[in-house]
Amino acid sequence: MSSVSTRASFTAPALALVVNAFVWGTSWWPFRQLEALGLHPLWATVLIYAVAVLVILALRPRALGQLLRTPVLWILVLASGTTNAAFNWAVTLGDVVRVVLLFYLMPLWAVLLARLVLREPLTHHAAARVLLALAGAAVVLWPAGRSGWEALPLPRTLPDWLGVLGGFCFALNNVMLRREAHRPEEARALAMFVGGMTVAGALALALAGSGMVTPPPAPAPGWVAGVAAMALLFLAGNLALQYGAARLPANVTSVVMLTEILFASISALALGGGHLDGQLLGGGALILAAALLSTLSGADAH
Q1: Residue 129 pLDDT
Q2: CA pair distance 148, 169, nearest whole angstrom
Q3: What pLDDT, on the 0 to 100 scale, is given for residue 294?
Q4: What is the mean pLDDT of each run of 10 residues along the chain (302 residues)?
């Protein structure tokens, strides 16, 4: 294969991943607008993905049978569903920049999951990426003015935990897309959107009794139109994700998707959804350093 064709085969999937990163990186703002209209982000996720499921079934009705006949795709259902429920809720509740940094501890999770699921070798470079990602997480999570056990750099708030959980599940989602790249695209897409609908719905119902999640408001033009627009954007973004993730190594996918940090940070700082201080900059720099190592190893592979 020529170097030109090799670069072309790398560029198109990478650009598709950037499209997905932009959709996700800026999605916090419409989710907050929907919440201001009374629609909790979990219910918003349910409705957005329900619309996408209906669109896929209308265009590719065979996808349902393919999903039902392929049990392994239900791992993708759970991974994608947990990713979306956790991330969408976290960026609505917490500081967007902090949540996205914790979400994108992808070099760490991708190395471990690629080893377990794809049997990719655990090299010295991979170990270095793990250490850098862990160091970055420690800096981001380091609590100021605490001692003893309370000084450990661990997630302490709901947005922190949701960010970490969502990032782990997103890494699993990307690894599974790579592993099941031979499956029909419509089946993989349906699995991801069914997951977004069912996991968020189950969580919303489970938390409704405690008052943590309020029921959806009566239909109104504002939030109904917002849900429809978000469904189309997420459909396009997730199709771009599965196109790119199925054609690139899992660790390279994780690195390209780090552009979401850029999109999320710029939009959050511009629109008042987050802040950036020395601690976040330091931790983010270490996480991005781990990403750069992944980029170099991914470039060598191509």
Answers
A1: 78
A2: 31
A3: 64
A4: 56 89 92 94 95 91 92 92 94 92 81 79 76 86 70 84 92 84 87 93 92 91 94 87 81 75 90 87 84 58 36
141-177: buried (b, 16+ CB within 10 Å) or exposed (e) per residue?
beeeeeeeeeeeeebeeebbebbbbbbbbbbbbbbbb
> Which two structure tokens, joined as six digits, stand for 95?
């500081």
Structure tokens at 271: 């629109």
CA distance 170 to 87: 10
Report the C-alpha gap between 288 and 141 in whole angstroms: 16
Q: Which two tokens stand for residue 63?
A: 């996808």
pTM of the model: 0.83
Asked whether 154 and 164 are in contact (CB, 8 A), the reply is no
Using CA atoms, how far apart are residues 236 and 36, in angstroms rounded to an integer? 25
Tokens for 168, please give them. Answer: 């782990």
Structure token pair of residue 223: 């939030």
Q: How many residues does the chain have?
A: 302
The first and second tokens of residue 239, run together, are 């199709």
SS3 assignment for the chain:
CCHHHHHHHHHHHHHHHHHHHHHHHHCHHHHHHHHHCCCCHHHHHHHHHHHHHHHHHHHCCHHHHHHHCCCCHHHHHHHHHHHHHHHHHHHHHCCHHHHHHHHCCHHHHHHHHHHHHCCCCCCHHHHHHHHHHHHHHHHHHCCCCCCHHHHCCCCCCHHHHHHHHHHHHHHHHHHHHHHCCCCCHHHHHHHHHHHHHHHHHHHHHHHHCCCCCCCCCCCCHHHHHHHHHHHHHHHHHHHHHHHHHCCCCHHHHHHHCCHHHHHHHHHHHHHCCCCCCHHHHHHHHHHHHHHHHHHHHHHHHC
Distance of alpha carbon 243 from alpha carbon 192, whole angstroms:
13
